[in-house]
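Table 4 source record.
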Amino acid sequence: MMRCHICLPDAQVWEIEVDQKATGQTCLDKVCERLGVLEDDYLGLQYRGSKHEVLWLNLRNRLDHQVSGHQPYRFQLRVKFCVQPHTIQQDTTRHLFFQQMWQDLQAGKLRLDDGETRVAKVVALVAQAEFGDQTTNCYQLKDYEHILQKIGLQADQNLVESIVQEHGALHGVPPHTAEYRLLQEVATLPTFGIEFHEVRSAHGEKIQFGVGPEGLLLRNVTADSEENLSYPSIHMATHREREVYLQLIDDSGELLPAVGYKLVSRKAAVALYRCITEMHSFYRCDTVSGDVSNQFCRDLKGTLVSIFNENSDLGKRYIFDIKRTSREAYDHARRKLYSMSQSTQSLTAAGLHHGSTQSMDVDRDNNPCDGHQCASSECQRLKERLETLEDSLLCCICMSHLVSMVLCPCGHMTCSACAPKITECPLCRTEIEQRQKVFIPGFRMQKVDSSDEMDEEEELCPEVV
């Protein structure tokens, strides 16, 4: 078996064991199964290459063909495709998105540059999600200052007052609702969903190459400038060794010369090429084209074998691992959730029907079931459950009569015969202020005859307090 350590967005580390020949999808499936997440199309696993470049694990290829070094292999579970909050259908998935966005705010990938109002809202929502309703003690102000420090902002008096006002307005809002509102806030930021890569231009200028839902964002750190390129203006993206080339279309429809961008390694160049293609397919296409899903390369051994057998899968490694577009991912998750709800309803209905049938078949005199109606082991199990239920309804003092009297204020129960003889509850030792008669319908004990019990009650307890 192969051991993998998965770091979650909340800094928890899980150990996952997979087969030696397992693909990345197997590892992600095990993580999502433990989390209870069905919307796995939005998620991925990241790792660092030999030159510390951040890479996405290709889920269609084998793990041992992508990572090197000694086990356990270390990956980070991250949101790969950021979608609008209202399209997320599971609370667990929404919580992962919240943790991811909070990490991105702290790392500076999401910037709150559009005024004090949004900063106050975001900090208040984080405080509501993490700490709950606003309190009046001085430690709450320290929490606000701590949150501001995490996102790289100074806590001035006006800003803190705005945060206090915003947080006070969130009184009673559940944490999951606060998380959803935070996602709504950050979803309007210009860098929401953009993945940045460190590249250099042909002139050696340092550029932050951003790939997002609408297109490309090129931040020239050296010249302190930005350039936005929409997907329709991009004719082609290719890669060769450590470089990625973009060929653009001008306003008149003419092709411009290809522009190259150099990265730190060949794996980083492939990662940027993958990112451009997969982002475009996920956000802008109705379905993933065959040219994308079927694109692959081979290692040396596979190349030699393919000379004699073109259909051989030996050494085949897929370039892209995207399976669905954003619309297809939403529909797929919706169908899975609907199927699960239908299965749950069917199982519940079947369980109720099965339970009612068994209750009719089991004789109250504890006689064994008929051979053709249920197995002896099932019959024994039902008998034990019935005995347990009977014992739970017996008086905890005499253990012979049904409970029929509630002791107030603690709420524990005894029989009518024992209740007037005690002044405090035998279970919690609370002083008894009142005794209230109670009737439990739909249950008859086999051990005690009801007429005998009533006679005994009249003899021992002619008057109830």
